[in-house]
Amino acid sequence: MSKSSTKYIFVTGGVSSSLGKGIISASLGKLLKSRGYSVTIQKLDPYINVDPGTMNPYEHGECFVTDDGAETDLDLGHYERFLDHGTSQANNVTTGRIYQTVIQKERKGDYLGKTVQIIPHITDEIKRRIQLLGDTEQFNFVITEIGGTVGDIEALPYIEAVRQLKWELSNNALFIHLTLVPYLAAAGELKTKPTQHSVKTLLEAGIQPDILVCRTEHHLSSGIRKKVARFCNVEQEAVIESMDATTIYEVPLLMQKEGLDKVVLRKLGLTNNNEAELGKWNKFLNGLQNPKQEVTIGLVGKYVELQDAYKSISESIIHAGAENSCKVNVKWIHAEEINNGNVAKKLKDLGGVIVAPGFGDRGIEGKIATIKYLRENNTPFFGICLGMQSAVIEYARNVLALEDANSTEMNPSTSSPVIDLMEGQKEVTKKGGTMRLGSYECHLLEGSNAYHAYKKLKITERHRHRFEFNNNYKEELEKAGFIATGINRENNLVEIIEIPNHPWFVGVQFHPEYKSTVASPHPLFCGFIEACINNK
Ligand code: GLN
User: Fold this and answer.
1) Which of 388, 461, 466 to mutate to test the pocket of ligand 1 (most atoms within 8 A of CB)?
2) Is the dihedral of CA 507, 510, 513, 515 positive or negative?
3) Which atom of ligand 1 is nearest the CA belonging to 419?
4) What is the DSSP string of 44-82?
5) Which of these ranges, 158-172, 367-381, 417-431, 514-528, has the smallest mean pLDDT?
6) What is the pLDDT of residue 4?
């Protein structure tokens, strides 16, 4: 397909949030890619923040970071994990970013003499951002997921922009609408009225959906499909059932069974007789659903009641478990509830523990108590970002006897700042997008656990932090058996620490969880899970 024939698929949602637009978009993307097309997926978010980087995980769940250092919506993590293809800033656009661009243009004088308005200026900027991916990167398919629910005030400019785009792109655009078909137990029936209303709302905005994906807890009978088709002006074949699945990774197969990819191709006028090739995907699912062994690990963090905050970590654990044909149960443990007195009781039955990333001092002492226990009891430890920094503090305090050792994030006046603000961060006062973000190179020490996992000397991983290992303590720590096994040579930064005299004790300053995909489970997660299995 040539550039000018890039196909645009717009995914909207109705009736309720959390219907799984992200997973449906990712699953459709996976099916199209498995038929040989190039596909990218984009998320439009209706909030005013320029990006989710400044939002609390309670507001937004995890902030996903791309290679180019964009702080983005967690759905981009699903897109990358399903498609095994990187995303970038262009794949996540917020209302804040759209307005920021338009207002900057206005101040520059680009609209001199004109009144700047939502239509056409904001909608034009939205349309430009959508087409940028097709134009510059020449994908066969750009799938654009519109956040929120139709009828939301915030989503209106997006809905209007894609209505106009459909008109301009004609046969190269398609609308998929996700809706809920609830089961009323008292009536013993599935109900289609909410779907009819939600399609009416779309129609009022000038959009006729081509395909309806109906989230449901019970199978849709052909009678229900017929009814939805009749009231919503879609073909019966274009009423796609989306049943609750046991794992999100089953959804591409469910969508294939329902013929979603076939209907999409037919409606876009594409003839393609290749069935989606899902051999590798099925192999992964098989490993996931038929495990040969089982292990329980801990995840110590401060947002454990909100598992979306650690989305990429939990998905990476799933990938690594399937790779090892092992069912991995995760015990989520609140860092604030751990102390030296109860740590043994809380952790003694676990194969290993991940200590999570984070900001601020809440729960930090619990993380340090956890790491001390794991180190002293030869239990596999995997520390990510703040988890790695906590391991440095723990070793400095308990092995080097620097009692006051800390990160200057937690105690700015500590006498032993083993973790300190990065040089480049000292002058930074603004909060948005100012951390060390995105992909950086790291050189590994031969013979280390990291090297065994990656099986190469040079890697790149994604970052999101302000503080770093303080090199003034490197020599002393290394002499005491705490080794830097990964270094960013360009900036002389310690990226990985290990204790060689331990079954598996690895802390990383970067976020490996952003790079684990179904096709390529992350080597460090695989190595950690293997160590946990061996520890049993
Ligand atoms: N708060 C720490 C820092 O800014 C760690 C960040 C993280 O865990 N992502 O360096």
Assistant:
1) 466
2) negative
3) 10
4) EE-SSSSSGGGS-HHHHSPPEE-TT--EE-THHHHHHHH
5) 417-431
6) 63
Instruction: State the chain's maximal CA–CA distance in angstroms.
Output: 75
Query: 409: Cβ below 6 Å to ligand 1?
Result: yes
**CB 515 less than 6 A from any atom of ligand 1:** no
Mean pLDDT of 516-528: 97
Which residue's CA lies nearest to atom 3 of ligand 1?
465
| Chain-centre distance for alpha carbon 490 | 28
Which residues does 515 contact at the CB level (< 8 Å), separation at least 6? 461, 462, 522
Pocket test for ligand 1, best of 56, 389, 418 (most atoms within 8 A of CB): 389
Residue 427 pLDDT level (bands cut at 50, 70, 90): confident
356 CA closest ligand 1 atom index = 8
Residue carrying the six token digits 């995997």: 382
Residues 6+ apart with CB under 8 A from 242: 19, 20, 24, 178, 213, 214, 215, 216, 251, 254, 255, 258
First to last CA, the chain: 52
